[in-house]
Every structure is written in C-alpha cells, then in structure tokens.
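re: ur question from earlier - yeah i can do the single chain one, its not a big deal. heres the input i used so u can compare w yours
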Amino acid sequence: MTSFKEQEPEKVAEFLDILDNLKDLPVLYIDETGIDRYLYRPYAGAPRGEKVYEKISGRRFERTSIVAGQVDGEFIAPMIYKKSMTSDFFVEWFKTELLPALKTPHVIVMGNTSFHPKNILDELCIQDKHFFLPLPPYSPDLNPIEQAWAILKKKVTDLLREVPTIFECLERFFKTR
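and the output i got, formated as tokens:
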C-alpha cells in the first residue's frame, strides 16, 4: 500500500472504510507546501585564470508557502503567505477562507501536522455540516494534493524564467486555473 514503514495498516484500513462510507459527499483534501528559491547563475565569464565573483551566492533567497484545499483536482481557497504557519493562522484561514468557499457538505481530509488543532477543526466542520477526517499517521500517499504540489512546483520553476518572484508566479498560476 505504501512505502512508509511507520504506517499502521489497521489505521489506513479504518480511514479507507470511513471514506468509503461517506462516498456520497465530495472529498476536500488540505495541505500546505513551501517553495524555496535559490538564485544561481549557470554561466559566468571572467578572464582565463581569474575567479568569478558574483552577487548571487546560491544560498536560499526566498521562501513562499501555500495552503489550499483540493476537490477533484481543483484548488479551493489557496492562500499564499510568507510567515510561518501556526495553529491560529491555520484556523483563521480555515474559518474565513476555506469553509465559506464550500457551498455543500464535504468530507475534509488533512494530515496530522501539529498546527492542525483537531478538536477546533472538527467543531468548525460540524457547525458547517462537514465531516472532518484526519489522515492516518505517515500517510501522505492518501492525500492527492501532494501530487498537485509537485506539479505546481515544476510550473513555478518554469514561470520563474518570466516572473521575478515566487509570489507572482503563484498568483499567476492560481489566476489561470
């Protein structure tokens, strides 16, 4: 089923059973990702025998993060941010951006990250008639948004040839979807 040796097959089976029992509801998967921009020059010139000194060191230059939901391959309530994710920040996004974007009840699936306060999120879901379903531990393979992030990161890498910042790349990516 997965390559994570820490994964507990019983918990995965239970998760899949619950998901199957809720198959009449659309499933929204939530995840966060970050993109680092390393600046480098593949080519540089200097007189033979002299070292090239550059202003771009190759060290991390820019970190941009995204949180979003995804239903049937469609991003829901994507938010681009530069600060660190905290429980308060996540709950605020969940309440003010994600839940209002859902017009019908959904199964809401997300990982067990420390800043996902399960009790609060479950309560918010119940209030809005959604079903909160955390992923089993060590089960990112059960969250399809993980593959979407890989595709997004490739497109951002390509877009960085035309747009100066990751933030602008992400804005362009989400506007064209």
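Residues 111 and 135 are 5 Å apart (CA to CA). not sure if urs matches, ping me
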